[in-house]
Amino acid sequence: MAENSSVCMAGITPVQQMLASGTGALFTSLFVTPLDVVKIRLQAQRTPFSKVLSVQSIPWSIQQARWKCFLYCNGLMDHLYVCQNGNGCTAWYKAPTQFTGTLDAFVKIIRHEGIRSLWSGLPPTLVMAVPATVIYFTSYDQLRDFLHSKMDSQRRYIPLVAGAVARLGAVTVISPLELIRTKMQSRQLTYQELRVCIQSAVAQDGWLSLWRGWGPTVLRDVPFSALYWFNYELVKDWLCSQFRLDKATFMTSFAAGAISGTVAAVLTLPFDVVKTQRQIELGNMETVQVNTPRSSSTWLLMQRIRAESGTRGLFAGFMPRVIKVAPACAIMISTYEFGKTFFQKLNRERQLSSL
Asked: One Gene Ontology cellular component annotation (predicted)?
């Protein structure tokens, strides 16, 4: 028993959970990043970032005088890219190729720019999103197993609580790193300059300034996580019972992840709209020194969006978010579950061989 004490209730160790979640994050990034690269290129072609945009032409209902930065999402994390009047954009955005549609964009990008261009922006994803996902998924499994051991294992709210707490912890840990990454990306700072920049920010506004933008992120991600895991466990159990499976298969996890991700994305969309607006404002302040007015609270900002664009404004970008979140959640959770199953079998074989 002593040699197996590090193995958790799921039959794998925390390190193995980290490896499984890291692999899932890597596969998700590899699959979803090309979709977002194409989406941004098509969006930029329709309305160049250097031109004045109206609320109607921006999918997230964000009203800015000019595009100073744009949000890049890959299914795992959001990233800000600087685009100051078209001069500070990344090279893959400024490429002049004209596209007639999504498939045409894929073909022309590969033909004229090389297949690697479809994974533009992947390095910051791997640096930021993979560690965040490892912390998040491992914490969820550990918390869920702990709550199951302390309470009735049939209580359905355990995934909801574990998902919310795990996401809260991951957001809190990663938030300062995201702010640092934005500073480095926008101003091309050396590590020495970055250290001085952070020290001056802390001296002026205190340590809490490193968590600027934490509130809106938590309001979106924590409810999403709670709903996602709650629905995922329910849908997975239902699918297993329908197909008379003793254990969820890869396709069962894939379907449950897509369904639960879609439901959570739709229900938390208003918070996503608010969070995106706040993130763009933060990007303007951090990257190009623009003093953007900041709303005093998320609730007031939601009221302002509703007054300007109606209730539909709070659900702006419905289809793009669902189209991205559903496959990202499906790929991530199915790969993660597959990795856990692999390690469970490996551990069982080791135990049998040691007898």
From this structure: mitochondrial inner membrane
